[in-house]
Amino acid sequence: MFLKIKIKIVGMSKARTFRLCIIALLLTHLTSYLSLAEQKDFDSYCNGRFGFCVDYPKHFTVGPEPVNKDGKRFFNSKGFLMVAAGANNALDYTLEQEMGFESRVFFSKIIKRKKGTNWFELWCYKDGDSVFVKTYVGQAATNQLYIKHPRHLDEEYKITILKITDSFKPGNLDLPD
Predict the structure, then answer these.
(1) For residues 133 and 158, is the Cβ–Cβ distance under 8 A?
(2) Domain ranges in the chain?
(3) What's the pLDDT score for residue 3?
(4) Rounded-to-integer distance, Cα 16 and Cα 161, Å
(5) How many angstroms separate the CA atoms of 41 and 59, rounded?
(6) How far apart are CA 135 and CA 142, in angstroms?
(7) How far apart (Å, rounded) are the C-alpha atoms in residues 156 and 140?
(8) pLDDT, position 103
(9) Read out DSSP for the chain?
(10) What is the model's pLDDT at position 105?
């Protein structure tokens, strides 16, 4: 026994309904393709010393790792800069203390903040740039993602920044290196 489904869209011919269905299928396929292409356009960086990992666009220039192996810089020719770094929590800062310190160091005026149990995010505009910082704080270490780009490119970098920030995972914050 076959089940017959009839869809009737008011005021539309069968041909137009068929064309809309084809367009919807093509858009679904294209979206899947773009998602896969976007994933292929990123590489991952995992820091051997602090254990954090983050994805970055393949076409970005990757700076050399410093002698202390605490992180890396990633940048492009349009003024986008990303720094992923770790540090020993030598001052035994709590999450609140680290958040206060970074608020004073990086930002003149914060436009948005977000906080979890062992992390926080800060956003601001500074000197024509958009700046984002996400920091994980533990007893022994901190892991930080710093992103800066020209403010007029906010819309262009929106998806890239979301992909980067979603991928940032901390290492072991409670064991000394």
Answers:
(1) no
(2) 43-167
(3) 47
(4) 39
(5) 8
(6) 7
(7) 37
(8) 86
(9) ---------TT--HHHHHHHHHHHHHHHHHHHHHHHHHHHTEEEEE-TTT--EEEEETTSEEPPPPTT--EEEEE-TTS-EEEEEEEE-TT---HHHHHHHHHHHH-SSEEEEEE-SSEEEEEEEETTEEEEEEEEE-SSEEEEEEEEEEGGGHHHHHHHHHHHHHH-B---SSS--
(10) 80
**CATH of 43-167 among 3.40.190.80, 1.20.1260.10, 3.40.1000.10, 3.40.190.10:** 3.40.1000.10
| Torsion of Cα atoms, 68 then 74 then 76 then 78, to 10° | -100
pLDDT at 108: 74
* Token pair listed for 177: 């290196």
pLDDT, residue 35, reads 39
Bridge partners (DSSP) of residue 87 are: 142
pLDDT along the chain (177 residues), means of 10: 49 62 51 44 96 98 94 97 95 92 83 95 92 96 97 96 97 78
**CB contact set of 75 (below 8 Å; sequence gap of 6+):** 60, 61, 63, 81, 82
Q: Is 135 exposed, middle or buried (0-12, 13-18, 19+ CB in 10 A)?
A: buried
